[in-house]
Amino acid sequence: MSGDFLQPVRDFLGVATTDAWVQAAVADVPTLLQDHANCEKKAASTAMNMLFRYNDREQLQTELTQLAREELLHYEQVRVLMAKRGISYKPLSASRYANGLRQHVRTYEPAHLVDLMIIGAFVEARSCERFAAVAAHLDDELKRFYTFLLRSEARHFTHYLGLAERYSDEPIGERVAFFREVEAALIDQPDTEMRFHSGVPIPQVAA
Asked: Could you state a single Gene Ontology molecular function term (predicted)?
């Protein structure tokens, strides 16, 4: 996939998705779609939680309301694709990605809000980058769907980053650099299962 609007996303991330992750994702489309659905639902929930927590921040209210609406629409669209393919919805364990980022969030304001916005930017940027990485290797229907999602995820990334800059008392470059290293390590480290935001899955060997 190509496109000038993707370059800022790639520049923002510390590492690129590996071919090994793409191969693992393409080999298990049902899990890819199901975890993608979970990610969209969690993204909507995260935005909604911040709408309630920071209901005095007008710009945040405006941008995250739209973002939450789009994430729920994407969740619905993934569920439709799953139903068409006979993929039943079942519980999946979460990847360590989100908790690995959130454990570094500062506890005082506005630093807490700023860190959440920066993490949101990385989550959306990684989603966008992975949509682009995997799309060309999927069937035509899924290729169209993931290509369609690219611009909205890139837009979500810029919304979160812009909100971090807006509400920070100081330049955010140092915190962005910190979370870039954390996020890159989470993506580079091996995982036992394939998830949308996992590292490369390494199958466990039975004892």
From this structure: tRNA 2-(methylsulfanyl)-N(6)-isopentenyladenosine(37) hydroxylase activity
Does residue 207 form part of some domain? no
How many domains is the chain built from?
1
Q: Supply 117's token pair.
A: 């916005």
Residue with tokens 């993929």: 87
Q: Is residue 105 part of a domain?
A: yes
Asked if the structure places residue 198 within a domain, the reply is no
> What is the rounded distance in angstroms from the CA atom of residue 27 to the CA atom of residue 92?
17
**Could you tell me the two tokens for 201?**
């899955």
**What pTM does this model have?**
0.94
Residue that the structure tokens 């290729």 belong to: 143
Q: Output the CA–CA distances (angstroms, integers) from residue 152 to 70, 156, 187, in the order listed.
A: 8, 6, 22
> Is 206 a domain residue?
no
Q: Cα angle at 81 between 24 and 122, to 5 degrees?
A: 55
53-83 in b/e form (b: 16+ CB < 10 A) is ebeebeebeebbeebbebbbebbebbbebbe
Mean pLDDT by 10 residues, the chain (207 residues): 76 96 96 96 96 97 97 97 93 91 97 98 97 96 95 93 98 98 96 92 58
DSSP reduced 3-state for 191: strand
**Domain assignment of residue 61, given as a range:** 4-188
Q: Which amino acid is at 23?
A: Q
User: Across the strands, what pairs with 201?
Assistant: 191
